[in-house]
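Help wanted!
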Amino acid sequence: MTGEALLQHYRTMPGFWDEMLSETGIRSEYRQVAATLQQLRTDDLLQKDRLAADLFMNQGITFTVYSEDKGIERIFPFDIIPRIIRAAEWEHIEKGIRQRLQALNLFLKDIYGNQQIIKDGIIPAELIASCPQYTREVHGIRPAHDIHVHIAGIDLIRGADGVFYVLEDNLRTPSGVSYMLENREVTKRLFPELLSGNKVQMVGNYPLMLHQNLVSLATRQIAQPVVVLLTPGIFNSAYYEHTFLARTMGIPLVEGRDLMVDNHKVYMKTTQGLQQVDVIYRRIDDEYLDPLVFRADSALGVSGLMSAYRKGNVVLVNAVGNGVADDKAIYAHVPDMIKYYLNEAPLIPNVPTYQMSDPDAFSHVFANIGSMVIKKTDQSGGYGMLMGNKAEERDIEVYRQQVAEDPRNFIAQPIITLSTVPCFLDGKLQSRHVDLRPFALCGPDGISIVPGGLTRVALREGSLVVNSSQGGGSKDTWIVDG
Amino acid sequence: MMLSRIADSLYWLDRYMERTDSILLILRTEYVLALDKGSEQPHSWRSVLEHFTPATESQILDWEYDTIRSLRHVITDADNNNSLRALLTRARENARGAQDQITKEMWEQVNHAYHSVNNPEFEKKLEGKDTLRLIDSMTEMITLYRGVTSSTMPRNMGWSFMNIGKHTERCMITLDMSNRYFREIGYDLNDARDILYWRQLLLSLSGYELHLKTYRNSQHTQNVADQVFLNRHFTRSLRYTLDKIGHYLQDVTDTNNPAEKDSLNRAFGRLHSKVRYAELDREGAFAPQQFITDIRNDLVRFTKLLTRVFFSYA
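Answered by r_m:
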């Protein structure tokens, strides 16, 4: 089949915003890509698809699926057609993320400090008190430069009206940045002329920005502070990303067993003896960080780490306790935080969210369940969700009981009409739903955001779940003038 | 400065890769020999199964004349924790754990080797007519790994630990393989076996051509002993491997200056001297059995000390 025929056969989904096609034809930012696709044949695209798969496999960008006691390595699915966003739209996204992170950092400083936002009645005290991610152990600890969120991955979606909405704030250990970078490297191999012809904004300097940011956080006044990346180990599903970042930043990749605490200082065990560590970019959840403070059965963390953190002898990135700010029930209050701390209106709106502890909201949600999604506030990755339009009566009843028993643990949102993009699947261009996770870095010198981010795509037909654990894949994301 | 765990991983990465390489060389030699023997006198894989696998006596009796079954056990069997597949898996795990310290190119080679032996097509090739090609393709992967490592890995401490690992493993294999052949002749240096007997050992250690070029008289047993134990130019001899270990040991002890530097150097010095100052030509002064046992014990003692000094992070 020719590329022209491929494009002609491409069908958008009624009621959804398509990133490539509008009612009047191909959007300006996609014109060059469409022109190139027209000149290619299906076989050319299949060959590029295979090349991409080989590149991912050879570099070990894989995850393991266990079946019949055998581990089978699979690559994270990658779709070769890029997702393209106009620079003008991106500028607005950047401003919105910057604004949101400023407010969230101020909220975390406040909530682990004198809690003025509660005293002023903006956020109900019981919402914080009942939040499992609120970490009493860090109350009163002021992280260096008062920065709690150093690295954020804020999930955005584009609705049917073409507007970007914030779906989720990931403020703990957001992952996926290595896929953003590797996707670009693979695209360079697949469509080199197209990349340079479109003047796509660069993402490759992210590791340098991150390294600079981490070094700037160190509290010891020395020329070369020791920065490390703490990983749970080779069996963690994001291990590839950990090695990728450590390698591209030139910092040691350590496991909990490589570190020890003595006299409230953290050291790593090297062939030259103990070396003091200044900054830990940890990819371990709070509860596994220190068995003396959190989970006693955790072998992933370091005993005494929290004491060194409390004394200010080591910087943890991200700070401990950030989960309270990206809790799904707190999420609904972020626009209020922006207004309260910055006296501004949110630049990127939230998806409307119903607190299930509100009896009116409870009734409304179950009366309109066919157009609602119910989410557990303490789960992520596409788990703990009920999609009202696809659920059976029995499942809805189970959720109704669970929500009634513990309403604080649930929120509901209208099912969002995630925008679609063309994907090259089974030799055809097919529309699939996507979201966008831009990565932002907050440091003493301000907030910087990499142009693009990770586009996650729900590869199953009709699916709105983009998580890799549930059949999702990814795409390269281009920011272009257009 | 290097994490102890990383130093340990790099040391074992190269030990596993070296072991894989050595076993492949031995398999190739044995396989080609098996083709030479014809159907009247089938080739026995007993010594390979005994040395490099945990096969029980009854399994060996079942498999020793079945080339494909034996090869499958050595190369891929899941219940053989020293199979080439298991060795490459462990090499990859170590490379993965030290991924920020090795080059991307190296990692891709190790990863490629791992995926190749875990490909479902791999076992089919083993049982088809492509057995020799399969062994050669694996050897080629290891050779590529060596080449890529040599041309991309910085000559820093990581390189030194890798080389200590590689040469330690090589020294062990040479000791074990030599022991197997010398035991067969009662460790008698005056035994009059012809070169055909020794050819298999020399091919298994990639030293046959060097032997033909270097040794001209007919005292093959003494010549082989000289080559595999004392020849400074043979890359799998005890002398060569220990010289290399000494070189890289000096680098890591000088750089790290550990508290137990002197005892480590003494342990290695004793071992090295036994080989360096050994003499074959003095009548009755060289007892191969004692020599092999002593060197092996000293080498084990040295590696334990090395582990304690540099890798004891647990």
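OP: Thanks! One thing I noticed: The interface with chain B takes residues 57-60, 73, 229, 233-234, 239, 243, 246-247, 251-255, 257-258, 268-273, 275 of chain A (CB under 8 Å).
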